[in-house]
Amino acid sequence: MGVVLTSSFLFKAARGDETDAQAPLGDRPSQAALQGLVVAHFMVGNTYPYQVADWTKGALHGPFQFNLRSSDSAATDILLASSKGIDAFALNVGRDTWQPARVVDAYTAAVNSNTNFKFFLSFDMSSLPCATVADAITLRNYLTAYRSHPHQLMYPTGSASGTSRLLVSTFAGEACRFGQGTLQAAWQYALRGDSRLPAVHFVPSFFVDPATFGGLQAMDGSFHWNSAWPIGNTTTDFKTDELHHKNLGGRTYMAGVSPWFFTVSGCSRLFDPGC
Question: Is 113 part of a structural domain of the chain?
Answer without folding.
Answer: yes
